Amino acid sequence: MGICPFHGSCLEGLAAGPAIGARAGCKGEDIPADHPVWEPVAHVLGQLCHTLVLTGVPRRIVMGGGVMVGNDHLFPRVRDAMVQSLAGYIALPEIAEPAFIVPPALGGNAGPLGAIVLGEQALAERMGTAASAGAFTTP
Ligand SMILES: [Zn+2]
């Protein structure tokens, strides 16, 4: 079922764009929101969030990448899958809120811009100056 060359049905093997496309038989951007292929994707991503909640107790989970960006319908599905999987095991009512699992505010640019900010901070540290807020802060 999964396409990971190392593990078969690991998270990436099940929920990466090529895996979803292979199961649906078409490119990811052509898969409608009501296609049944999204249900197992939401399930495995919900399992990931379940693990993140129990191991790191995050205040928010930001999910980006090619699958999540452009598929806003996945956010409530992933959140529902996570809440259902946790089944009340942890008493954090905020995990059921829409703002708990969100897309990156910078969309597809979050990764490259984050790397630039980290580089800016490392340079400022090396230069002995405090890192500036930079031009890449979000409103
Ligand atoms: Zn793998």
Based on Cα principal axes, name the global outline: globular
Heteromolecules bound: zinc ion
Order of helices and strands: HHHEHEH
Give a short account of the largest sheet. 2 strands, parallel
Tell me what portion of residues adopts beta-strand conformation: under 5%
Total count of strands: 2
Chain-averaged pLDDT: 90
Count of domain modules: 2
How many individual helices?
A: 5
Q: How many whole angstroms does the radius of gyration measure?
A: 18 Å
CATH architecture grouping of the largest domain? 2-Layer Sandwich
Q: How far from one another are the termini?
A: 42 Å
EC number: 2.7.1.4
Keywords: Magnesium, Metal-binding, Zinc
InterPro entries: ATPase_NBD (IPR043129), Carb_Metab_Reg_Kinase/Isom (IPR051804), ROK (IPR000600)
Organism: Diploscapter pachys
Walk me through the topology.
Layout: H1 11-15, H2 17-24, H3 38-56, E1 61-62, H4 74-86, E2 101-102, H5 110-127
Parallel strand pairs: 1-2
Helix pairs in contact: 3-4
The structure holds zinc ion (ZN).
